[in-house]
Amino acid sequence: MIRDRRFALIYRCAAFLLAIAGILDTIGLWSGDLKPSYFMYYTIDSNVLMVALFGLLIIKTARALREQGPKGPCGFYPVLGMIVGIDIFLTLVGYWVILAPLQFTMNGESSLYSFSNLTVHLIAPLLGFLDFVLFSKSKSLRYKHIYLVVIFPLLYVAFTSIAGLLGYVFVSPFDNSIRTRFAYFFIDFDQIGLMVFAYIGALAVFFLIFSHLLYLYDRKVTLFNRGKDEGQK
Questions:
Q1: Paired residues of 170 in beta bridges
Q2: Alpha helix stretches (DSSP H) within the chain
Q3: What's this model's pTM, rounded to 2 decimal places?
Q4: pLDDT per residue rounded down to tens, the chain (233 residues)
Q5: Which residues, including other chains, have CB under 8 Å from residue 14's CB and lie 6 or more apart?
Q6: Which among 107, 103, 86, 87 has a CA at the least distance from the CA of 184?
Q7: Whole-angstrom Cα distance, residue 114 to residue 100?
Q8: Phi and psi based region of residue 2 (left: phi greater than 0; alpha: psi -120 to 50; beta: remaining)
């Protein structure tokens, strides 16, 4: 892990500001065409979750830097970091694998590479995921923690599905003429029926695979550091 608190603080401030800028640009703050309804989409919600985490990390890192100096552990809130890192990484994978081809068909290539699109769907997810990899100290996870990553996505699916069933209408960000009761086609009971549960199951498996990989990475780092320490004796 990286033990330079100055680097960690710069990294986290940059990630924090980029994520906020991406969110505000996506919801139309700069253009004056505000779209608060975008907060009903997983992309924005996962980015907001990352902003909240990085706000805490910035405060903790700055305090440690001031009180303990520039060198030392920077991996604060590792369990929360793993959860948020994986939950926002789904935004990257889900968008570029499932939704980007649809957006390209409807709006062309230029919309894929806008600042807002790249920030909320690529840059912020990568920075959020890498924070755990770069800064968390070894042996910071317990096996029971890996199942916590599914809580936020499942709550999101439950909340937006209930909202849709109660009458909320989602307007497609790709085509304003498309209106549905569900945020994404793969959780749209009206379009695919019970296949929704297959998609939800597949996404849950995706989360758990990644959380297991990070858990194994955490164990591997522990063994590597132990061997290194023994070699220096």
A1: 180
A2: 5-26, 42-68, 78-94, 100-107, 115-118, 124-135, 151-165, 189-192, 195-232
A3: 0.87
A4: 789 999 999 999 999 999 999 999 999 887 778 888 999 999 999 999 999 999 999 999 999 999 999 999 998 999 999 999 999 998 998 888 877 777 666 555 557 788 988 999 999 999 999 999 899 887 888 999 999 999 999 999 999 999 999 999 998 777 777 889 999 888 899 999 999 999 899 888 988 998 999 898 888 765 445 444 434 44
A5: 127
A6: 103
A7: 13
A8: beta
Q: What is the Cα–Cα distance from 29 to 36, expressed in whole angstroms? A: 10
DSSP conformational letter for 119: I
Nearest Cα residue to 75 out of 8, 142, 26, 19: 8
Structure tokens that stand for 160 in this block = 């937006």
User: What is the Cα–Cα distance from 24 to 26, expressed in whole angstroms?
Assistant: 5
Q: How far apart are CA 24 and CA 204, in angstroms?
A: 29
